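Hi F.,

I've been meaning to write this up properly since the lab meeting, where we talked about keeping a consistent format for the predictions we share between groups. The idea is simple: the sequence comes first, exactly as it goes in, then the structure tokens exactly as they come out, then a line or two of notes. No screenshots and no reformatting. I'm using this chain as the first example so we have something concrete to point to.
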Amino acid sequence: MMETTKRAILLFILSVVTFAIQAGPKDFRFVLYNAENNFDGEYIYSLLQDDKGFLWIGSDDGLYRFDGMEMLKLNKEDTVKSIVTASTISSEGYVYIGYIQGGISVVEHGRYRKLLSTDELPNRVEQLKVDDSGVLWGLTRNQGLVRIERGAHEKFQLPIFNELISNDFITIKNKLFVATSDGLEVFTIEDNDLEHSGSIQGLEGINTTALYLDKDNNNLLWVGTEEGMYRYYFDSNRLQNVSEFPNDFRVSSINKDDLNTLWVGTYNNGLVEMDLQKDEVYTLTHFNVSSGFESNEIGKVFIDKENEVWVGTFGRGLVQLNRKYFNHYELFKTIDVQGVRSVANYQEDQLLLATDNGIIRVFKKTMRDSLVFEKLSYSEDYSFTSLAVLGKEVWAGTQNNGVLKIDLEAGNIKKVFLNPLDPVNAYLIRDIQLDAKNNIWVSAAANGVYHLTREGELINHYNTRNGFYHNEIFSIYPDRAGNVWFGSHAVGLAVLRNNGEMEFLTRDKIFPAYDINSIIQDDSGKIWIATAGSGVYSFDGESFKQFSTEDGMLSKFCNAVMVDDIGNVWVGHRLGLSLIQPEFEVVRTFNHPSELGETESELNSVSKDAEGNVYFGNPFGITKINIPHFFFDLSKRESHIKDIRLYYQNVDLLQFSESGKVNDILPSDLTFEYNDNHLSFDFVSINLRNPEAMFYQYTLEGYDKTWSMVGKTNKATYTNLDPGTYTFKVKESDHSELWNDTDYTSITFTIAPPYWRTWWFYLMQLGVYLFIMYLTLTLSSRFKSQFLTRLMVYVSLFILFEYIHTEVEPYMERITGEIPIFQVGTNLLLALILLPVEFRLSAFLERRASRQQKIDSAMDKITKSNTN
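Output, unedited:
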């Protein structure tokens, strides 16, 4: 009996060959920010993100603000020149910062303001937090707490604080939990007073270093200590050790992302990733120097709004963890497997791969963040082409052995005879699918389609002998309405309706493509059809819509198609992937071997697991698209005009504002002098994960006639702006073809006119001109010389018309541009007007002078006659 048991165990061990491909650090791309990125902080103490998306970093080099493109140093004399050890943000967007030497400041309206000086708070500030009522709380190392409300502050220096070192705290309603060097202390806030309520049992004497209130469970507090991790449940006052976490790891920081993963920073062992199932640890991964991470000494862990993990280290600066979009698992070199012809889900948490060398089972082992590829040795004699999972049974199509039914738990294979009259059934199986009634649809090369019960009994056989449209069917898809779609090469698409009626869509000129490789249905009911040579079609029940290379597809030859959890459509080609986002009718492509690995997709070899990851089979393994519903959603973003520079130089814009306050990021009432008319605008749409992916368009209303060309440049410069009021507008997009003309960010500003363009100067000019004309009219009658008269008239009119020309010329240039012929024409027109006016006015003055002379002569004669 014992010998039989040993033999059974040995046979089971020999029946599988496993290989684990480690995930963890290999699933991420590390981006290091240090002196090479204009960031001089080496020791990172605090990280936060404001509502606009800016990342604020407190370090040994003061305070920085990061927008994905620029690391802006905000150190100011007497404000942030000290080491920033704590920070938080209020609901109004004010950033509060605390220092290693004590004191608290606030950044508001673009200015720094001290709330408490180092004299008022002369102890290191460990943490700052704003409670639900908007009150700011500050925790010092060993001088207690301070509360700041409406400009007034109150200190709570209980004796227990002087005896212990305080590390972290949280506020929950009227309770305050403080992590100290001697455990977790509880305080009650009553009538603006703070009373010590006691300690959490089980942590006495343990240096408690970090606290995190679970974002998905307000009843759960994660507690980090110098002796491992704990869970504390408020309702039951229950403390539970996290046994999976090493108890010799000294915890420094705790945070949680949107994928139910807990991230734990440690002082001595790097970063720890803990995947959770509810509150229990499922897998645990270490990021440390030995695994390729930057540092083992972690000061702060932060999760931003895009689920990016930011790690502040002690000594190595700031590290960003980019989770890779894609993972390629090459099986040819590891377990000698090639040709992944089909991918299927098995029992939700596993995958099955149909390969040229047998069946591969893919799963995760508990407490290991790695994919394990288990080669089922009892299937090695078969070359598999397709898979369909029905409960614990697997229906498998083969290259030359027809259909097999496999019991994975028992490890046995049973032949399924499609045609009872054919004892061999050595068919090439192209596709196997299950319908809603759990019946089986099998496509056999040159033999049409077999419809079977789950027991293997033949329901119907569709081939050309009984009126079916073709015997070579490459793809079958039973939809949710009970229709069954068929795709073939050469004769295209057909559908068997749920009423039994067969429609030959290509033959009847309803569907234009002839070579079908893959069919799928999305949640809205649309059918998606991948073709060889005509791209992808969608069918909404009434009409077909095509997506091809003209629409941005990587290729017209599409091997496999899958819909992710938010309705994006993934298409596998020979040289990469295309992503169709139907909501916006935009297409993206991915064809870099460095990120995809093997880029060639096998025909109809694609599946989606329970977590939403999409897998494409290829000749040498599989390519995994990591949670595409999370990473490939087209997000609505907002552009921010973050600075305006004069002559390319940074200036304090508040000096150009009457209010002296910042609205959003910049002052809203900017007025520049006439000679401050060389402006550069810096703008950004914050995408911390992939800032290079953003596209921009901008325009200056009052100067530009249209929007700029689409580009990735986030700067714009305008020179020699005329006096007036302008509005600078900028808009952004994740995709170069997706724009909304009404969704933009703007700022309005004024260029003040010079004194000679002001109203009072215009009045003065008019007065001077009128005075000249008066002199001309007055003196002309006294001149005997016609030349002097005409000269004065000409000068007066020249001044007038030159003034008109100067005022009109800018408006003419807007109409005619700076083409010389138009400028000459303008000058000629003014000259033609000036000449006759000058002639007429001179003639008038001459006649008047002549009459005056005659009158004077007559008067002289009268005077002389009277005298005689």
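Notes:
The first helix runs from residue 2 to 15.
The chain is about 15% helix and 40% strand.

If this format works for you, I'll send the rest the same way.

G.
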